[in-house]
Each structure stands twice: as structure tokens, then as C-alpha cells.
Amino acid sequence: MQIILLSGGSGKRLWPLSNDVRSKQFIKMFYGEDGQLESMVQRVYRQIKTAAPSADITIATSKKQASAIHNQLGDKVDICVEPTRRDTFPAIALAAMYLKDEKNIPENETVIVCPVDPYVDNSYFECFNELADMVQTGKYNLNLMGVEPTYPSEKYGYIIPENKDHISKVAEFKEKPDLPTAEKYLAQGALWNCGVFAFKLGYVVNRAKELLDYHSYKDLHKYYGEATKISFDYAVVEHEDSIGSVRYNGSWKDIGSWNTFAEEMHEPVIGKAVMDDTCENTNIINELNIPILAMGAKDMIIAASNDGILVADKHQSSYIKPYAEKMEQQVMYAEKSWGSFTVLDVLPESMIIKVVLLPQHQLHYHSHEHREEVWTIVSGEGTVIIDGKRRDVSDGDVVRLPIGSKHTVIASTRLVINETQIGKEISVEDKIKYEMPEF
Amino acid sequence: MQIILLSGGSGKRLWPLSNDVRSKQFIKMFYGEDGQLESMVQRVYRQIKTAAPSADITIATSKKQASAIHNQLGDKVDICVEPTRRDTFPAIALAAMYLKDEKNIPENETVIVCPVDPYVDNSYFECFNELADMVQTGKYNLNLMGVEPTYPSEKYGYIIPENKDHISKVAEFKEKPDLPTAEKYLAQGALWNCGVFAFKLGYVVNRAKELLDYHSYKDLHKYYGEATKISFDYAVVEHEDSIGSVRYNGSWKDIGSWNTFAEEMHEPVIGKAVMDDTCENTNIINELNIPILAMGAKDMIIAASNDGILVADKHQSSYIKPYAEKMEQQVMYAEKSWGSFTVLDVLPESMIIKVVLLPQHQLHYHSHEHREEVWTIVSGEGTVIIDGKRRDVSDGDVVRLPIGSKHTVIASTRLVINETQIGKEISVEDKIKYEMPEF
User: Fold this and answer.
1) Which one in A16, A20, A166, B9 has a CA-CA gap of 20 to 30 Å to A220?
2) Which among B15, B297, B304 is the nearest to A313, CB-wise?
């Protein structure tokens, strides 16, 4: 079984924890089975590995997110990188071509497409095994999982099956309805469309060839920017008559707002924080090193990260988007494939940054045109390369990197660097990458 | 006219802005006349210089606060340092002896003692001129300024004058009363005791000699720790029959809690912060570099510093003390006579610190037994001395300071240093000071 996880959107609705480089699925917000905090991506990945251990997972995402995914799921996770963002049909088509051409998956193998961020029980992913059986019987070209509604929601699209059986042919699809219509759908045995599609690999490969007129992964990847932005629902589902659906009746939630997030927090507090006895229905998530003290806070969300601090009435927090969009764009913390960086201070014509490299990882070999840098090794061991010369470093060592010098560092152990950037124009754009020299 | 400003207490009631090293009087919380933020100490100092330009000011305080006072008021301000804390009578006695012996002030000169933190109009200090006239007429041995009450407060001590004249002999003093008693005092023309005492220098010098049995500043300073802890009210005022009072009828406030502080903020926000339209009666003071977004906050105080973040209902904030006392003791920011330091990050066996030196200022010549340090000069110019050797430095330069090395830096211009401390036991106590070498 092949699973394609769609990891999309940057999203500001969970500001200050989500930002331009960190989508909400990367926020470590839930306590996992080992008591460690885990993100939505980590949770879903772990759940799939438990419910369907033999499933082979590919994550379809943008270049921007690839670093964070490697950071959180490890180097070995398979990523199909979309060159630009083109909506779900081109993304699923590219991933399907990738499975066929790059991973040599046979065209009759089951593929299940799933968003990366449903907040669900393990039984959600156990239901994937039923979907896979449906695909392999070949009764329907396309197979969907639908969520048994718990109330007549106006927020979701609906799948209307022909009958109320556990598995049924789909009669039609409905957009977000008004309340009376939603009630009517529920009486009919309708399901919420949760964006889980299953098919034989060949099915989508053929759709890709027909609709996009590209016949290989390499081709599609190269001309990806020219593909029309269109969703899988509009491009494929609406034109397909042979669709089956299976009913999932466990919990299902979209953690897209601070309100829903707070509802799922197991403890009212994550991170350093104290609440006095007069606080009520308040949640705190603090990623900073300094403590938060809340007194007499009622129905509030308090969230702090290196990007900022949110203090919001829970109801009011649902209107955060325009405010978050106006907040400063400077990214103060980012997870990269090699580790992470944290901006510790922004000064006139200089910045102080903490760089953490994971063991056996390294930066790109690169130079800057408008800034010099000084590295102080705070802890760990590694090898620095400057203009082709190697030098071993450990804690207390200092490396000066003049403007224009090509440099990198390779971490032998976990390596923490205190970096001072000095220059009139300091920007993340000021970076020229090079091939690593050979030794 | 000599003015002794008493600068006391560490105080946690304005946590996270006040802490063990920063008392509330050093928080920059008010917009001064030039539109710049100023602290209570700066405000009072400026007001005295305006209302009584010829007054000579001496600040009586602890060693701990001397650095912050020099930082905020400049190097030239006169400080009489108490070797330990012994309550107001020994403090005033020491300052009086200091005026007599160290500043050679004649015994018949007027001395006015005043707390460093009243939040008042300039007219409060103009009233000092009336007090000085009272002292010089010699009618009373001791002269007090009393505040015309605006309501029957249970929080303050009362001065009961013999009559309601602007200047009157004092009949008696009363401790904090209950409400009916306070109402009775007001009907009698009583005044709030605001801790302002005036006398001829010789008066307190004689009390010091009698009660403490020390006859010089040097002697008293040396044996200061042996002096009994007793207030000026109990030691002197209660035993004096010849006391006059003058009525001050302007505004007077003790900014001792977040609630009173918020009432005096001219703008609801200080620092980087945004409030949405649904916030009501909410104040934000943000000393951090990152923005605060408040949504739907009602009747709240939000305060953020390098020490922590407070989110409190205004009423509830008055119960902060026990919570603030339990907060971490690590001081993340401190103003020193030579500039300031900010802890940017605390890591296992290391710390990252930003050191800012004011122009023409320098650190003590010192060494550490348990940590090495690396300095990266971020901006500015100066001279480093390590083990007696001088070296000029400017931005981008790096200085390694091995364990045990004696070192300092003298700033030619404003100098910013990114300091990495590395060692198993990092502590502010680990500091051995030396005499500066001669060149």
C-alpha cells in the first residue's frame, strides 16, 4: 500500500506558533505515546506506521517544507517536492508519477491520498486497510473514506452514498450546505468528505497523462509551473461515475484554529507557565525559555514563541488571520533538515543567531556577499571547511568567516554555534551555494 | 538645600519588570518631557532639578542599586551607599554623616529626606522650598510635608496638625486607621504621611551620635551592619515634640502595583504590541523585541520582559507577590554603571550574553575560575586588556578569555559584545576582581 500525505499551506491562524516557514502541522503541540511533544506530522506518521505497518509513505509538499519534514521525521522519509504550489490535482498527479517512475511502483498497486493534518484516532488509519481492499477488488475506480457526521455541520462538503451500508456506491457530492440542508443529508446517511481518496496507481497516472499531457515524472516536474491550479475534486472526482465510499465513525477533527487546538490539549499548559487559582478555561503554550504567569485569565489562549506572543479570548482568536498577517515577517526560529536556527537578537547592522546542527549533518557549502560572520562553538564537535581548507573544532573554538568566504560545518556530534552576523544588509537571501569540495 | 533621596526595596509586585536587581523605581514606564521613556528615579530627579534647581541631591541606597542609578542618572550623581540594609533611621543617619564629613556641608543647612518613588506633580517638589523656609526659621526642630487626603484611606499613616492652616504645629501621628477613624481624621484636617522630613543637618547628625554612638561617617559606615534596624519614624519622629507640617494639595500616588501603574500610563501600550478592537481597559508594556497581539482582552495587564511574561486580570494582579517570588531567580537583564547585560540564551554548561558598554566606560578588571569566555565585538570600538596586555578591538574582532585570565574592556564608543560563556559551573558569583594594571 502506498500512502501519499499531502502537506500544504503555510497558515497564520495559529500565529505565533505557525508562520511563513512553519505550517501548523509542524508545531509540537501534542503529547505522543512516549510523553514527548509531537507535531501533527509526527503524530499522523506514527499513527500510520502503527495502523498499517507495511504502508510505504510519500509526502507531497513544497520545497519550503521539505527541511522541516526531514527535521521532524528523519532523513529517510520519502518526499515528492512540488516545484511550485499548484493545488491538489497537480500535486497528486506529480506524486503518482513519482511513485511510478522514481520508485518503480506497479500500476495496479493501491494508493491512498490523505491530508497530513487530520486529528484522529488510530482507527482512522486502520480504515485505510478496508479502503485498500476496496481498491484491490476493483469494483470502483475511485474509493473514498467518509466521516460519519456527529452533527449537521455547515463547514464541510458531503458525500451522499446510495445507501447507509458500511460500503456503498457514491450517488453524489455536495458542497458546504446550510443547516436545514445539512440535516437532510444526515437523514440520508451522508458522510463528511475528509479528503481521503484511494485508487490503483495506474488510475491517476492515466488521468495525469490525459489532463496534463505529461508522460513522465521528469517531464511533469520540469513543466510543473505551467499546470493549471485545480483541485483533485474538480479535476477527477466530479467526472468519475464509479466511486465507492467506506464509513469511518471515529473522531475526526481539523486543528485549524486556536479554539480547536485548545480543545485537544491534554494539559492546560505546555512549556514554562503558572496559572493562579482564578484562571478558568485557559490554555497556555509557551515555546520561550522565560516563564508565563497568568492570573485571573478566563477563556483565554496564551501562546508564545520566538515570533511573538498571543493573548486572546478564545472566541476572538478565530479572527486572528488579518492581524497575524500584519505581524513582522522576520522569522525568528526555523527547523531545517540539518537542525535549527534561532534569532537571539536583532541589532543595527548585526544579528546574533544560535545554530544547532544534528549529529552527522552539515550546512550547505555557501558564502555571503554582504556580511561577515563569526562562529563561537558553544558545544559539540565538528569540522569546519573555509575556502576548501578543513579544520576540526570543538567548544570554545572561534571561526571567522570574512565576506565572500565559502564555508560550511559538518557536525560530528550535536553542535551548537553562537553566530554573530555583521553587515549593512543582512538578509536570508544573501547566500550563494556551491558544490562541496572533494578531499 | 540638600535633598536625600531614599531608594529602597527590591520588590516583586511589578514582576516581570521588577526583580531582585531591578526595583520598580528603575522601570522605564513613563513618557518624559522629551517623549523618551523614563523611570521613576529619572522622573523624580528631573522634577527636583526643575522645581528646586539649586538643590544638591544625594541618593541613599544599597550597593546593589548603585549601578542602576549611575546607569540611569549618569556617573556624576552622588550616592551614599549603605553597606547593608538597616531601615530608614540608620540610612538617613549615614547620609547625614556623609553630607557633613564627606561633602563638608555646614550643620545649619537644610536637609530634606524624600522617598525616590512618589508619582507626583512638579508642585510637590516646589513645596520643598516652603519646607526649607520652615527649617531655616527654626520654629520647629523637624518639619514634615503632608498630603491633603482625597478620600478616607485605610492604607496610609496620618499626620494630625493642631489646626487646618497651611503650616501648623503637629499634634500627633496615627497609624493606618479603619474607615470610620479615617473619616474622623479627615474632618480634623489630617494629612497623609508621605515620608518627607526636613531639618537642619546638625539635627540628625546629633541624633545619630546620640542613638548610634558613632561620631563620624567613616565609623558609622564601618560598623553599619551592627546598627539596629529601626525606622526614622520610630527612632526620631515619635520622640520629637517640636514638629511642624506643611500641606501639599496636589496629586500623589504610590505606583506600587500593576493596577496603579496602569492608571498612570498615558498610552495603553508601551513597546511592540497590537490590540484588536474588542480589547477593553487593557494595558500592555513590552520590553521584548517580539510583538504582542492581544485579542478580546478585558481589564487586563500584559507585561513582558527578559524575565518573563505576565497576563493578569487587573484586580487579580494585586495578589502577584507570592507568585512572583516563586518565579525563577535567574536575572536575564540588568543595568550596570558601565552599561547593561542581557542573557540571550541559557544552554547546558553555557550561556550566551549580550554586553553593552557605554562610551568611556569599562568593566572591572576580573577573572573567572570556572568558565572560559569568548567575546565577539558586534559593534563599536574599544580596548581589551588581558593579563596586562592591551589590544584595540572593533566590530568583527574576537577575544578568547581562557579560565583564570584577568580581563576587561574599555569602551571608546558604545560597544556591543556577544559573549559566550562555557563552563560546568556558570555563576555570577564566579568573579575575582583586581586592581587595573598601570600603563
Assistant:
1) A20
2) B297
